[in-house]
């Protein structure tokens, strides 16, 4: 069949995209998702929130002159990492609860899926875009600000290598909540269950992790804040630090798989 | 007229034409396409063939299943039965390759509101073209001009009216020079001027592409469509070239006369090829509808035999043309009852 597209391709200087089966449209969608962060006010609103919440809180701790030097460092680091692990998780769920559901409700998902876009690409682009956005605004920049502040305000210097390891653990926690929220968005039709389950999981961890048996808690992301602190402060927690890290990493991969599996079955 | 239209349905809807020798492969070919939502049969095994370079109007009352059928063709939804091929490719298995050659306008098109019209078209174009940037820019400008949005190209979409969004929808649907344009109710939300503009755009595009569009505006179908497919309650009621549907049974003639009705009837009944005659008063004259089995004989002898009758003055004679609204209503009524 002689097609118009073929005819146009001969005449037109436009170079066609070679559509790949599973990552069709991925680059374009990632660019769009990143644009939603960096070409709108979203990036500076998020950055402002996390600088005030995380660095504001830790600055107050660092300025507390009544504490012993070691205790002050411990308090500042724990505040940053423990508050960070919980607050950023809640922030992630609240911010991106509509990332998939909103597009399904509004009809933009159906519009995008009418183009040569794979469903895998749609989900991956959301994960990449929001993971990068939260990593930079909620983890990376506040961590750099924390290190700079610590250099000038704390009497004992941080071990930067250990702190970087702690930030990596915090990043895993953020990544987990991004993936969880996107997966919930793929599974449900409304924002209620997405926000409810996401925030519920974080709050249950916060309030009950001390009451539940350790073997249960060990395989959840609830201990990632404590794990990160223990890395930064070179302390030995009463659990194997690799278990929550591995369990969260595996859970993250499982939720990525589930999100893609569910979205491939979505009917628009 | 009812009997004439019903006869037409049987003649025109004989299932999908298999791609035959000497005929271009159809762009869309669906056989027994079925979609069920729980206990609701949204599509009941429809057969559909859309020829290349045609404009096919997909008619049906609200809730007939038009949008469901379109979503199945695009791979946005999976059929519960049957099969559809577009460009010879399977709508489920080869959906990505199909969508690379299709332009789609949704019934209520929605876009990312933080983008401008130009950014939306750039975003759409990048699914199809990787460069060069200048050529993509030129294509976007050309498309904006086609739909008359040049002066609003750099405004955020959130301020767009329904008509402007619809025009942007048409622009994004055809930015990739699609081999097939699927438009779901392209003119439904528009005022008469907007509707005329959309139909003009469709007419301009017909030289380059096949257009399959759903609508319930019968005037639009009559104006631009080569073919019509009529859907009701998930079932295909008719599928035929527009002219054939409007002609009804092509062997039906209308004769208007003044004078002796009985004499005229006698004259017409003498012909063996006359299958049905009805008469009705019309503005002081008599309108006679004659169905025949031999079109050629009717055209040469029917008028002559009535003219030869004493006391009869013929004021009009010709093949009967049906109004699409009549045809549509009769088909739907016939299907339901």
Describe the model.
The complex is a heterodimer of chains A (268) and B (337). Chain A has helices at 4-11, 26-38, 42-62, 69-96, 98-106, 108-113, 119-153, 160-187, 191-208, 214-218, 224-233, 242-264; one strand spanning 15-16. Chain A is built from twelve helices and one strand; from the N terminus they run αβααααααααααα. In chain A, helix 3 (42-62) runs antiparallel to helix 4, helix 8 crosses helix 9 and helix 8 runs parallel beside helix 12 (242-264). The radius of gyration of chain A is 22 Å and the shape is globular. Chain A is mainly alpha-helical. Chain A has one domain. Chain A starts with a helix and ends with a helix. With 337 residues, chain B is of the alpha/beta class. Chain B has two domains: 2-101 and 178-247, Rossmann fold (3-Layer(aba) Sandwich); 252-321, 2-Layer Sandwich (Alpha-Beta Plaits). Chain B has twelve helices and 15 strands. Chain B has helices at residues 2-12, 66-74, 95-99, 117-125, 133-146, 162-173, 192-205, 218-224, 242-247, 261-269, 295-307, 324-336; strands at residues 28-37, 40-50, 55-59, 81-86, 89-90, 102-105, 129-131, 180-184, 210-215, 227-232, 235-241, 252-259, 274-282, 285-292, 312-319. In chain B, a hairpin with a 2-residue loop joins strand 10 and strand 11 (235-241). Chain B starts with a helix and ends with a helix. Mean pLDDT of chain B is 87; it is low at 1-22. Chain A binds chain B through residues 1, 3-5, 8, 12-17, 19, 21, 24-25, 27-28, 31-32, 36, 39-40, 106-108, 110-111, 113-118, 267-268, and chain B through 24-25, 52, 71, 74-78, 87-88, 96-97, 99-102, 104, 106, 108-112, 114, 123-124, 126-132, 135-136, 139, 176-179, 208-209. Strand 1 (15-16) of chain A pairs antiparallel with strand 7 of chain B, so a sheet runs across the interface.
């Amino acid at each position: 069949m002689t097609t118009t597209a073929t005819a146009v391709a001969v005449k037109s200087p436009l170079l066609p995209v070679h559509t790949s089966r599973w990552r069709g449209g991925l680059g374009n969608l990632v660019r769009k998702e990143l644009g939603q962060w960096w070409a709108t006010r979203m990036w500076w609103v998020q950055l402002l929130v996390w600088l005030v919440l995380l660095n504001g809180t830790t600055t107050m701790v660092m300025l507390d002159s009544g504490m012993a030097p070691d205790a002050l460092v411990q308090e500042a680091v724990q505040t940053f990492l423990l508050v960070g692990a919980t607050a950023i998780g809640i922030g992630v769920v609240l911010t991106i609860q509509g990332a998939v559901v909103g597009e399904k409700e509004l009809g933009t998902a159906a519009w995008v899926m009418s183009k040569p876009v794979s469903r895998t690409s749609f989900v991956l682009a959301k994960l990449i875009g929001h993971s990068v956005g939260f990593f930079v605004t909620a983890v990376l920049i506040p961590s750099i600000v924390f290190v700079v502040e610590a250099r000038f305000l704390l009497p004992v210097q941080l071990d930067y290598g250990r702190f970087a390891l702690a930030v990596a653990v915090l990043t895993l926690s953020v990544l987990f909540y991004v993936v969880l929220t996107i997966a919930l968005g793929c599974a449900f039709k409304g924002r209620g269950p997405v926000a409810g389950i996401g925030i519920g999981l974080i709050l249950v961890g916060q309030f009950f992790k001390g009451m539940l048996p350790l073997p249960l808690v060990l395989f959840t992301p609830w201990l990632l804040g404590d794990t990160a602190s223990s890395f930064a402060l070179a302390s030995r927690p009463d659990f194997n630090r690799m278990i929550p890290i591995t369990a969260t990493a595996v859970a993250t991969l499982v939720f990525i798989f589930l999100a893609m599996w569910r979205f491939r079955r979505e009917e628009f | 007229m009812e009997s004439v239209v019903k006869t037409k349905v049987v003649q025109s809807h004989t299932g999908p034409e298999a791609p035959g020798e000497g005929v271009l492969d159809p762009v869309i070919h669906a056989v027994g396409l079925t979609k069920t939502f729980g206990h609701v049969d949204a599509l009941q095994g429809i057969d559909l063939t859309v020829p290349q370079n045609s404009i096919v109007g997909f008619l049906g009352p609200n809730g007939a299943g038009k949008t469901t059928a379109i979503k199945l063709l695009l791979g946005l939804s999976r059929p519960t039965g049957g099969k559809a091929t577009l460009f010879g490719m399977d709508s489920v298995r080869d959906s990505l390759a199909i969508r690379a050659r299709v332009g789609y306008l949704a019934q209520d098109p929605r876009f990312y509101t933080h983008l401008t019209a130009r950014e939306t078209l750039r975003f759409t174009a990048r699914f199809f073209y990787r460069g060069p940037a200048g050529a993509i820019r030129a294509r976007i400008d050309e498309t904006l001009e086609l739909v008359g949005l040049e002066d609003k190209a750099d405004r955020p979409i959130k301020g767009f009216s329904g008509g402007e969004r619809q025009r942007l929808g048409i622009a994004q649907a055809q930015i990739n020079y699609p081999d097939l344009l699927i438009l779901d109710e392209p003119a439904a939300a528009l005022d008469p001027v907007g509707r005329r503009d959309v139909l003009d755009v469709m007419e301009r595009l017909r030289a380059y592409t096949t257009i399959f569009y759903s609508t319930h505006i019968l005037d639009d179908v009559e104006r631009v469509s080569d073919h019509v497919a009529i859907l009701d309650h998930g079932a295909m009621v008719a599928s035929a070239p527009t002219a054939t549907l409007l002609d009804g049974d092509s062997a039906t003639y209308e004769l208007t006369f003044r004078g002796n009705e009985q004499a005229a009837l006698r004259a017409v009944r003498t012909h063996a090829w006359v299958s049905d005659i009805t008469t009705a008063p019309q503005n002081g004259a008599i309108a006679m509808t004659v169905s025949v089995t031999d079109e050629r004989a009717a055209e040469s002898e029917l008028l002559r035999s009535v003219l030869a009758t004493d006391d009869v003055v013929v004021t009009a004679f010709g093949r009967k043309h049906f109004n699409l609204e009549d045809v549509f209503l009769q088909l739907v009524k016939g299907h339901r009852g």
